[in-house]
Structures are given as C-alpha cells and as structure tokens.
Design brief:
The protein is an alpha/beta fold. It has 2 domains: about 5-135 and about 260-310, Periplasmic binding protein-like II (D-Maltodextrin-Binding Protein, domain 2, 3-Layer(aba) Sandwich); about 140-260 and about 330-345, Periplasmic binding protein-like II (D-Maltodextrin-Binding Protein, domain 2, 3-Layer(aba) Sandwich), CATH 3.40.190.10. It starts with a helix and ends with a helix. The radius of gyration is 20 Å and the shape is globular. It is built from 16 helices and 11 strands.
Length: about 350
Amino acid sequence: MNKSTRSHGRPHVTRLTLVGVTLTMAAAATAQDKGQLNLLCSTELEWCALMAQGFEKDTGIKVAMVRKSTGEVLAQLNAERANPKTDLWFGGTGDPHLQADEQDLTLVHRSPLLPKLHPWAQKMAQAAAYKSVAVYLGPLGLAYNPEVLARKKLPVPRCWKDLTRPEYRGEVQNSNPNSSGTAYTAIATWVQLFGEEAAFDFMKALHRNISEYTRSGAGPVKNTGRGENGVAIGFLALAAGEAKQGLPVKTLVPCEGTGYEIGAMSIVKGARNLDNARRFYEWSLTPAAQALAAASGSYTVPSNPDTPLHPLMPPVGEMKFVDYDLKKFGSKETRTHLIGRWEREVQSAPR
C-alpha cells in the first residue's frame, strides 16, 4: 500500500464529548438522558468534527462520529442492513446517497426548511423520493501546483482532454471510483459531456498519465499541494481550502465544462436514535450549521441561501455546467455499469 493510500484511505474515528473539562454528576445524567447520535460523515475530517462538536454544544446530545468515504459508507450500510449501527449519514457525493435510497437503506424525511433551500437542493430531494436532501454543492475541476509545473516546464492544462497529452505522463492523480464519490462524479461528468464511448476513450488515454488512483477523493488534491504531482482531478472547494493553508494549489474549470457534487444527507433506516437523527437533520440545514463548512476550510456552496457566502467559495454562476442527470447517474444500475466498465477497460490497462 502506498503512502497516499495509507494517509487518505483510513477511516478517521472521533469521539466528541460535551464542552468543558469536568462535568458534575447531575449534568452528566442530563446529557445521558438526551441520548446519543451515531454519525457517519463523508466530508473532510475537520468539517465532520465541527459538525459533531457544534451539534453537541447546541443540543447536549453526544455524537459518536466516524469519517469514511462514500463508497465505504454505502458498503457498511448494506453490511449492517439487518442491524444498523448508524443513525445518520452526512455529506459526500449525492450519487451513493441515491443508491442507498434505492436500496431501501434510508428513511423518508421532509424537512420544513426544504422549500427555502436552493432549487438544486430541492431537485436532489425529489430525485431521492425525499430520502435524502442536499446540504452543499461543489464543482468538479482541476487543481494544479504551479511550482511543480514550472519546474518541469509543463503548461497549465486548460481542458479535460489536455490531461491526455504525453507531457503529463505520471503527473496526474485521480481517485478510485470503487471507494470515492469524487471519482464516480468525474466518470459521470465525462459521460455526460462526451457520450459514453468517447468518455471511455478519454479515460483510457488519461490512464496512461495517472500516477496513482487514491482511495479518497481528497487524496489527489492534497498530494498535489504537497508537490507529489502536478495536476489533480477533484472538487474545487477542497483545493481552495488547501490554498488557504498556504499550499501552492490553483484551480480551474476545464474548457469543455464540468459536473458537480451535490453533497447529501440521509437518515438510516432502523436508526436506533431516530429522534436525534431527525434533530441533527434539521439542525444541519440551518445557516449557522452550514457556515461550519467554510469555518473548517471546505468552501462549498451551502444549500440554504441564507447562509453567508465565504469569499473563497467558487463563483458557481460563472461556471459552465453539464446538465447533470441526478436520477440516472445516481442509480445503482448506472453506477454499477460505469464502474464495472472502468475496472475492465481502464484500471486493468497497462500504464
């Protein structure tokens, strides 16, 4: 296993307790009465931690949080179908959430806040038959390290198809769609931009230039910021966060246009702490909770329009987007077909 896979593929486990170093016995009893929430989180760890901490602070409900990629969460929910150990799944690309909905792993919940959310968030809820809701939008694009490119005398790629040029051999990183929702969003984007046959021709040519398929969608962007490679395929919001920390990362939307993730949230069917899951669900759609994304360094577009926008959030109105078919590309049938074909025709090809 390589260094990046070890760094980004391992689930992060955090146990968060009530604010304060000490608690009186009476306060502890009160907290115990308020119960617990078992949360699987598929955003960045810092964001996951702030969400858990903020909910505990506002409600007194203890949060047991595990950070996993979307593919790992979907596999876990299926494995635990008969005896769920999770109450709520927060974040990560909407496609696996739609598959969980399709596989009857999640519950219908219509939030009173839904009519107040952005239209794309309402569209996500409708596509999921109200078993999921959108909490943020994140455009897909390219992150690049200008220092690496300059040192190797490489031009900045401006289009998706530029990544197939021979001079970028070994300089591009992507994630693996078997575990990463980011990677599947990229495949779905290319299929919708180019058509399926042309998209797979593109992916086969791109494969020759890929240095690594990381387990997590965050891996390529973080590795690019550290100078391990020149270009990454990933979500722009994450790259903005890396740049804010002082890493040499710049972003762009490829000339052909791009897709996007709609980060979703779902209540798990059979949740042991259902009332607390519903409470977290409603809390997560408020402007105060959604502002925690930018506070953690994740500059996505929040689904509640009353949430203040951070200057580093991507200018969505200026971007060229594919008309993303959430229902089709979020279905198990389409996902299984596309990932299976990617394994057979792309992943297994020599580089």
